[in-house]
Design a protein that fits this description.
This protein has 186 residues and is an all-beta fold. Helices cover 0% and strands 41% of the residues. The strands form three sheets. Strands 2, 4, 6, 8, 9, 11 and 12 form a seven-stranded parallel β-sheet that branches. The protein has a five-stranded parallel β-sheet with strand order 1-3-5-7-10, with no helix packed on it. The protein is globular.
Length: 186
């Protein structure tokens, strides 16, 4: 962590409180200050209500892409995330002693210092997430994180855990047999 009295930068920090809820959809974080000892997105949930964050792109940002912490009894559902190119860590998923679930589905986590740090038994299904495997983005050096025709993320997603009708660019989901993993549908 930072020195006493200094706080790292966070682009978006959301806390549900003890009775609140939130739903995030189609957020794009690209090229935030890579030198910052901060995080692009931090979600902290304390409530018995369910929350969701879907169709999220976190790319080429600060040292850490996202931290998601569940302290309460409400479930957190994360679906169709693309997390790539962070020096220290892609995702930190922390399900505390509460009864609420924390689940990552239909997502791509690739080319981060450490892909995912899991604490307290969040659910990360290897059958519908592409983790630590090159997803074959179109032009990542230029900010192009759409999938090429040869991507292993195509049709990898679980339709039952899809991230809604649209992807991060507001294009239709499930254009083929099953939804693609990641923020973009091919």
């Amino acid at each position: 962590g930072p020195a006493a009295g200094a706080w790292p930068a966070t682009a978006l920090d959301i806390h549900s409180g003890f009775s609140g809820s939130f739903a995030l959809d189609r957020l794009f974080f690209y090229g935030n200050d890579w030198s910052e000892d901060g995080v692009d997105l931090r979600l902290e949930h304390n409530s018995p209500e369910p929350v969701s964050a879907r169709n999220i792109l976190l790319a080429a940002g600060p040292r850490r892409a996202a931290e998601v912490l569940n302290w309460g009894s409400g479930a957190i559902g994360l679906s169709h995330w693309t997390v790539t190119d962070h020096v220290e860590r892609g995702l930190r998923l922390w399900r505390n002693a509460g009864t609420g679930a924390l689940r990552l589905d239909n997502s791509i986590v690739w080319a981060n210092g450490t892909e995912i740090v899991q604490e307290g038994f969040p659910t990360v299904d290897p059958a519908n997430n592409l983790i630590g495997v090159n997803p074959q983005f179109e032009a990542p050096a230029l900010g192009g994180f759409r999938l090429t025709a040869l991507s292993p993320a195509i049709d990898l997603g679980d339709p039952a855990r899809s991230g809604g009708r649209y992807d991060v660019a507001h294009a239709p989901r499930s254009a083929a047999l099953a939804p693609d993993a990641g923020a973009y549908e091919r």
